[in-house]
Amino acid sequence: LVSSEQDNPSTSGCSSEQSAKAKTQKEVFKTLKELKMHLPSEKRSKGKSSTVNTLKYALRCVEQVKANEEYYQMLMINDSQPPGFDVSSYTIEEINSITSEYTLKNTDIFAVAVSLITGKIVYISDQAATILNCKREVFNNAKFVEFLTPQDVSVFYSFTTPYRLPSWSMCTGAESSPTECMQEKSFFCRISGGKEHGGDLQYYPFRMTPYLMKVQDAELAEEQFCCLLLAERVHSGYEAPRIPPDKRIFTTTHTPNCVFQEVD
C-alpha cells in the first residue's frame, strides 16, 4: 500500500477484477487522506512516512478506546453498585420525558444515555440529529465515543467514571441540596455527526454535564448502569454577528511569561 500510494491503478481490459481493485484502492487512499487531516501538526510529514504516521496514529486511537472500554468493564464488575449513591432506574420513555424539560428550552442542547458496560448509545434525543446535522439512524447501535474527536476520547472516559458521577435522582429531586451535587462536573468535548457537504468531518465543541442512572432495557429485560449526558453546543462569543462591530477589537497587556496584567 505504501509503495504504491503514488501510482495510478490500472483498469486496462475493463475486467471486473481490475475495476474492483481500483475502486478499493481509491477508497483506501480517500480514507487515508481523511485520516491525515486529523493527524496532529507536529506529527505530519510528506511522502510515504506520512502514511505510516497516519496509520500508527489511527491504531493508537483504536487502542486507546479499547483500553478505556476494558477499564470501564473492569470497574463495573468490581464495583457494580457505586457506594454512597441512591441510583434510580428509568425507562427510555421516562428519560425522554425528564430530559425534554432541558431540550425544549434550549435548541442547542441534546440528551444522550450511554451504557457504562458497552459504551453504546442507549437513548439519544431527537434534537441531536438536528444539532449535529446528521440523520438519526447514525446513532443506532453505535458507541458514543465514535462521534468524538480522537483527542477527546480519554477526556470523556476520565470524566464519566461511575464513582465520580452524581446520581440524577439526587441532583434533580425535590430534597436535593447544593452540597449533594458538588461532585457534578462539566467537561468539554468535540462531537461530529458525520461528513458535511464538503466531504470533511466537522466537529463542534460541547459542554457535557454527566449524571449516573440505571436504564431499564426492554430488549434485555434487565437494568444497566448508564451515564446520562446533557450536551450543550458552545458558540464562540466572537462569531459575527453575535457582538457589535465596534466591540470586536480589544486589547490586553501581559508579562513576558504570558501572565495577563490588564484585559479590556
TrEMBL record:
Domain of life: Eukaryota
InterPro entries: PER1-3_bHLH, Per1-3_PAS-A, Period_circadian_regulator
Positions of the UniProt region annotated as Disordered: 1-24
Occurrences of domain Period circadian protein homolog PER 1-3 bHLH-like (ranges): 21-80
Residue intervals of the Period circadian protein homolog 1-3 PAS-A domain: 108-232
Gene3D superfamilies: PAS domain
This protein's name: PER2
Cell location: Nucleus
Keywords on record: Nucleus
Biased composition (Polar residues): 1-22
Main subcellular location of this protein, as a coarse class: nucleus
Keyword Ribonucleoprotein set for record: no
Keyword Nucleus assigned: yes
Pfam families linked to this entry: bHLH_PER, Per3-like_PAS-A
GO molecular function terms attached to this record: transcription cis-regulatory region binding; transcription corepressor binding
PANTHER family to which the protein is assigned, alphabetical: PERIOD CIRCADIAN PROTEIN, PERIOD CIRCADIAN PROTEIN HOMOLOG 2
GO aspect biological process, one term: circadian regulation of gene expression
GO CC term (a single one): cytoplasm
